[in-house]
C-alpha cells in the first residue's frame, strides 16, 4: 500500500508538484470507451483530477491522506473521498478510465489488479504514469541529482526505485495499449524547484532523521548555477506512461 509520507507537507506538495500536460488528458479521453466516470486513484491534492474534469462528466478522486485531500481545489465535477487503492468503494463495472498519477508504485500488485478489473467497464482503460529527473541545465541538473543520488539516497525505498527505472518494473498485468510519447514541461523558478525537491519522500525522511533540510545543503551552489532566483526556467521531465485495457 501507498505509505502516507506526504501528509506532513501537504501544502508544499500542492504548491510545488508540477502539473501534467494537457496532451495526456486529451489522449486518455480519446481512447476511453466513454466519458461518464473516471477514477483518479491516489489523487493526492487533485493535480490530475482538475484536468480530467474538463474531459469527463464525473471524476471520483480518492486518496488515503486527509491532509492532501484538504488541499485539493473544489470542482463541480469532482468528488473527493478518502479511500485506499485496494477498496475504492466504486460499483462494479462503473468506470470508463482509471488514472494513477505518480503513485501506482506504492500499491501495485495483485490486490490492486483485482480492484481495477472489478470497477472498469468492458474495454475500460487504466493509465499509470510517473515523472522524474528534471532537466534544466547541466550545472543545475548536477546539483539536483546530487541531492537525489547522494544526499538523500539512503532514504529512498523500493517503490521509489520503480520510478527511477522508468516504470519498467511496475506490476501492470493488463493488455497494453500503445501510448504516444508525451512531453512534460514546466516553467519554474529556483524557489519552486527547491520546493519540489523538499516534497520527495526521501527528503522528508532525511529531514526527520537528521533535523536538517537536505536542499539547503546545495542552496548556495544552486543559487550560483541558477543566476537570478526569480528567473523562470524551462524544466523538462521524463514522463513514463503505461496504458492498458481489461
Report the uncertain regions: none
**For the terminal residues, how far apart are their CA atoms?**
22 Å
CA-based gyration radius: 18 Å
Q: Output the number of helix runs.
A: 10
In the CATH hierarchy, what is the class? Alpha Beta
User: What structural class do the secondary elements suggest?
Assistant: alpha/beta
CATH topology: Rossmann fold
Q: Would you mind describing this structure in some detail?
A:
With 246 residues, the protein is an alpha/beta fold. It has a single domain, classed as 3-Layer(aba) Sandwich (Rossmann fold), CATH 3.40.50.150. Helix content is 35%, strand content 24%. Strands 1, 2, 3, 4, 5, 6, 7 and 8 form an eight-stranded mixed β-sheet that branches. Helix 1 packs across helix 8 (190-198). The radius of gyration is 18 Å and the shape is globular. It starts with 9 loop residues before the first helix and ends with a strand.
Outline:
This protein is of the alpha/beta class and 246 residues long.
Amino acid at each position: 500500500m501507498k505509505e502516507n509520507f506526504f501528509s506532513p507537507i501537504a501544502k508544499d506538495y500542492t504548491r510545488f508538484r508540477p502539473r501534467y500536460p494537457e496532451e495526456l488528458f486529451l489522449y486518455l479521453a480519446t481512447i476511453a470507451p466513454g466519458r461518464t466516470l473516471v477514477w483518479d486513484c491516489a489523487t493526492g491534492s487533485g493535480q490530475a483530477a482538475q484536468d480530467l474534469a474538463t474531459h469527463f462528466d464525473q471524476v471520483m478522486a480518492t486518496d488515503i491522506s486527509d491532509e492532501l485531500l484538504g488541499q485539493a481545489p473544489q470542482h463541480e465535477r469532482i468528488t473527493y473521498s478518502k479511500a485506499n487503492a485496494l477498496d475504492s468503494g466504486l460499483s462494479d463495472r462503473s468506470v470508463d478510465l482509471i488514472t494513477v498519477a505518480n503513485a501506482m508504485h506504492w500499491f501495485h500488485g495483485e490486490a490492486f489488479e483485482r480492484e481495477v478489473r472489478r470497477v472498469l467497464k468492458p474495454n475500460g482503460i487504466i493509465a499509470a504514469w510517473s515523472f522524474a529527473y528534471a532537466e534544466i541545465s547541466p550545472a543545475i541538473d548536477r546539483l539536483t541529482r546530487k541531492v537525489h543520488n547522494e544526499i538523500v539516497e539512503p532514504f529512498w525505498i523500493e517503490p521509489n526505485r520503480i520510478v527511477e527505472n522508468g516504470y519498467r518494473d511496475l506490476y501492470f498485468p493488463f493488455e497494453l495499449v500503445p501510448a504516444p510519447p508525451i512531453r512534460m514541461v514546466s516553467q519554474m523558478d529556483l524557489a519552486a524547484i527547491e520546493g519540489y525537491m523538499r516534497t520527495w519522500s526521501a527528503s522528508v525522511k532525511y529531514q526527520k532523521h537528521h533535523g536538517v533540510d537536505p536542499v539547503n545543503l546545495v542552496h548556495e551552489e544552486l543559487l550560483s548555477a541558477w543566476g537570478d532566483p526569480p528567473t523562470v526556467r524551462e524544466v523538462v521531465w521524463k514522463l513514463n506512461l503505461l496504458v492498458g485495457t481489461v
